[in-house]
Amino acid sequence: MSTNNFNPQTKIFYRPIDAALRWCNLIRFETQIVQAACTCPERLKALFPQWPCLYANTEKIHDAVRNGELPYGSFGISVPLGTPVEPSLLTVRHSDLRHWMQIHYPDQRPGFLFGSGDDTQGKISVGVYISLQAERDALLRERNNLQQQLRDVEADLQALGLEQESLKALVKTQGQLSTRSEHTYLQILGALVNTVLDFSPAGKPLSVFKNQAAIVDAITARHKDISGLSKRTLDEKFAAANRALKKSV
User: Fold this and answer.
1) pTM over 0.90
2) How many other CB atoms are there within 10 angstroms of residue 111's CB atom?
3) Tens-place pLDDT, residues 199-218
4) I want to staple 114 with a disulfide (CB 3.0 to 4.6 A). Which of 41, 110, 118, 171 is the partner?
């Protein structure tokens, strides 16, 4: 960076109050603002009613941190998202803050982030911004759908485990299963496996499992300490269940 491009307002990282007062072009009041409110951002409205943007911009930064939109750290050292950090120690890096503002506030280009000669470089249009928002929303919806599918699969796996335990308990209390009862249980097991591996009318998988082997691997990983749930046993039972189900079709 040449001497002509040096920006005295720029820092490697900022506390939310540091960034907010620069965003509001209040750098000449930095000492007064920081001394009065650096540890009490909720008092900014009362302390500086003449500068409503100061409180609003501070809250925008805190909100972005809380919702995982803006990476953060402590004393300039980045930490993983979700890591608790004392509000007075919270910091955001210059590069992360600039990137966040380009995406979420493309119409605002405060000098401490973009400089006086940086009016066009890195600027995105409203169309690109809307497109990025739509892409983000689609990814969030996909994530929510995958989380729901995972919960459904976990419920299915639990049901498979309960079914196995029910069969064992029945054998202990009533002795050997009758041919009819065993056939019925195998049909139920086969139908459950086929449902887990099936597709919706729209052609989307009903679960994250691609095949029967993946289900077996998941069961053995989650219930490795339960006797009777070995890979060999599950493969045999699933094969018998598939045969029983096909005979009924």
Assistant:
1) no
2) 16
3) 878 788 777 888 888 888 88
4) 118
